[in-house]
Amino acid sequence: MTAPTKPPHSSPADGPADALAGSPPGEGHVTLHASVIDWFDENARDLPWRLPEAGPWGVMVSEFMLQQTPVNRVLPVYEQWLARWPRPADLAREAPGEAVRAWGRLGYPRRALRLHGAAVAITERHGGDVPTDHAQLLALPGIGEYTAAAVASFAYGQRHAVLDTNVRRVFARAVSGVQYPPNATTAAERKLARTLLPEDEQTAARWAAASMELGALVCTAKNETCHRCPIAAQCAWRLAGKPEHNGPPRRGQTYAGTDRQVRGKLLAVLREAHAPVPQAALDRVWHEPVQRARALDGLVADGLVEPLSGGLYRLPLT
């Protein structure tokens, strides 16, 4: 989600992005790249992980936090996190429970444990510096295909296809002519992303950031603003009359009354406490005992909560 230094665009003589009208993409996407990158230069949000001083660690932290979480919720936690742990080794020295505590209410707190595990590995294997090599990034605990590509691209300006939900939606509409991408990333989407990737490393890195921002601000899941889109005239979905989604039902995000909500309430008690918490204090956060016990067992199984003798619980120390 960062913005590497703006490179010169390739020459338009390389050919127009006429593949956007629905045929399989091939050569000639220079116009597409230039349009989106130029739009990004004018409209990119001023985000702290895009600043040079954020460094690779700041980029990595942002990528963990931004998974399934909007920017406005991430910003205050991100700034507090980097102030407290400006380098991976600073976080690695802390107990993993402190990462969970600092994660606050961002949701999906296993990300905090994974980020802590990555910090430990970076400290032990790479001298405390986030590795530049994509394969080494992918080998870190808690880092999958997307995060490795994002860090390599946004932190180091490398050429990788970075496919998050926003990018997948832009490609689905602009190139494939459908309203939404599949629920899970497919081999066809990966192939398309590689085909659309600029050859020049710096341009590719900026294209990754720009196409992601376009999906976040303009080509949104609901209420897209096509009149603001730099590639509206080439968009296969718009040119087809914006046909309605006819694929598998899109997964909704429910929260109220779910085990996830109960887990959040239990963790909130433990985050606020700096001593082990008795079972009775946890029992007060949710009225239904079976669901409450299931949520607590899940937290223990995920390594987010450590049970102690005497019916006490705490955030993990190891």
From TrEMBL:
<dbReference type="InterPro" id="IPR004036">
    <property type="entry name" value="Endonuclease-III-like_CS2"/>
</dbReference>
<feature type="region of interest" description="Disordered">
    <location>
        <begin position="1"/>
        <end position="27"/>
    </location>
</feature>
<keyword id="KW-0234">DNA repair</keyword>
<protein>
    <recommendedName>
        <fullName>Adenine DNA glycosylase</fullName>
        <ecNumber>3.2.2.31</ecNumber>
    </recommendedName>
</protein>
<dbReference type="Pfam" id="PF00633">
    <property type="entry name" value="HHH"/>
</dbReference>
<keyword id="KW-0227">DNA damage</keyword>
<keyword id="KW-0479">Metal-binding</keyword>
<dbReference type="InterPro" id="IPR011257">
    <property type="entry name" value="DNA_glycosylase"/>
</dbReference>
<feature type="domain" description="HhH-GPD">
    <location>
        <begin position="65"/>
        <end position="217"/>
    </location>
</feature>
<dbReference type="InterPro" id="IPR023170">
    <property type="entry name" value="HhH_base_excis_C"/>
</dbReference>
<dbReference type="InterPro" id="IPR000445">
    <property type="entry name" value="HhH_motif"/>
</dbReference>
<keyword id="KW-0408">Iron</keyword>
<keyword id="KW-0378">Hydrolase</keyword>
<dbReference type="InterPro" id="IPR003265">
    <property type="entry name" value="HhH-GPD_domain"/>
</dbReference>
<keyword id="KW-0326">Glycosidase</keyword>
<comment type="similarity">
    <text>Belongs to the Nth/MutY family.</text>
</comment>
<dbReference type="Pfam" id="PF00730">
    <property type="entry name" value="HhH-GPD"/>
</dbReference>
<feature type="compositionally biased region" description="Pro residues">
    <location>
        <begin position="1"/>
        <end position="10"/>
    </location>
</feature>
<dbReference type="InterPro" id="IPR044298">
    <property type="entry name" value="MIG/MutY"/>
</dbReference>
<keyword id="KW-0411">Iron-sulfur</keyword>
